């Protein structure tokens, strides 16, 4: 029998299933990683951020790394606040 190739893309830390009037436990139970199909899925990881690689701004790579560190819980937090480095910020006065 032949199979069907399906491409799923996204960050599981950012996309949760919608369960109307559901509890947190019901949302977790409904996610793809809890599916009976999950063991059959082959995971391929992106090794290079092409948006940053093809972009012109040098700070884009630093910002991409900062987001990954925050998402992985590796970025230091002081008093429940995250400090973004000055070289990644643009101050706009209105």
TrEMBL record:
Its cofactor is Mg(2+). It comes from the Eukaryota. Keywords: ATP-binding, DNA damage, DNA recombination, DNA repair, Helicase, Hydrolase, Nucleotide-binding. Its EC number is 5.6.2.3. One of its GO terms (molecular function) is 5'-3' DNA helicase activity. The keyword Hydrolase applies. It catalyses: ATP + H2O = ADP + phosphate + H(+). One of its GO terms (biological process) is telomere maintenance. InterPro entries: DNA_helicase_pif1-like_DEAD (IPR010285). Residues 2-75 form the DNA helicase Pif1-like DEAD-box helicase domain. Belongs to the helicase family. This is ATP-dependent DNA helicase. It comes from Parnassius mnemosyne.
């Amino acid at each position: 029998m032949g199979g069907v190739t399906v491409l799923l893309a996204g960050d599981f830390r950012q996309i949760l299933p919608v369960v109307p009037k559901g509890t947190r436990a019901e949302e977790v139970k409904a996610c793809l990683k809890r599916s009976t199909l999950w063991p059959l899925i082959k995971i391929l990881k992106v090794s290079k951020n092409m948006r940053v690689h093809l972009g012109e701004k040098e700070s884009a790579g630093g910002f991409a790394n900062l987001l990954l560190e925050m998402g992985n819980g590796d970025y230091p937090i002081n008093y429940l606040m995250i400090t973004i480095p000055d070289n990644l910020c643009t101050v706009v006065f209105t």
